[in-house]
Specification:
The chain is mainly α and 142 residues long. α1 packs across α3, α1 runs antiparallel to α4 and α3 packs antiparallel against α4. The protein is elongated, with a radius of gyration of 19 Å.
Length: 142
């Protein structure tokens, strides 16, 4: 089944239409914000080791340089996933859930170093997971 577009002469199949909702737009924006937060965490951990003060120079298993690289890479990937969510890509929704879970677990380990920031980011990750897994409006009962 194809439908005519109102602008231009091409046609779009029903399967190729991008399905977005308010929750997905919110989730994409939230993924961008959480990704930016994680990039900030990574850069700070790489540039200024003494910013996150705890009893030792290690958080669980890794030192601050390793955590800095982990947060930096995770943040960049989350920003890319956020852009994919905003574009309506299904792979980005699945990846968004996976990376939100990883970020929440990572921030549990990071809790000792910066508790307020970690609790805020964990909360945003939980909201992101909900926004990505909430059914679209009008699809309940179908």
């Amino acid at each position: 089944m194809t439908t005519k577009m109102t602008h231009g002469s091409g046609s779009v199949s029903a399967r190729d239409r991008i399905r977005t909702s308010g929750w997905l737009t919110f989730a994409g924006t939230l993924a961008l914000v959480v990704g930016a937060f994680n990039v900030i965490d990574g850069v700070v951990a790489l540039v200024k080791d003494d910013y996150y003060l705890v009893g030792q120079n290690d958080i669980l298993v890794f030192d601050y340089t390793a955590w800095g690289w982990i947060w930096l890479v995770l943040g960049i990937v989350q920003i890319a996933v956020g852009a994919g969510i905003m574009a309506g890509r299904m792979w980005a929704r699945a990846a968004g859930v996976v990376f939100a879970v990883l970020a929440a677990i990572g921030h549990l380990a990071f809790l000792q170093a910066f508790p307020l920031w970690s609790v805020l980011t964990i909360s945003l990750c939980v909201l992101l997971i909900y926004a990505l897994t909430a059914p679209p409006a009008g699809s309940i009962g179908k």
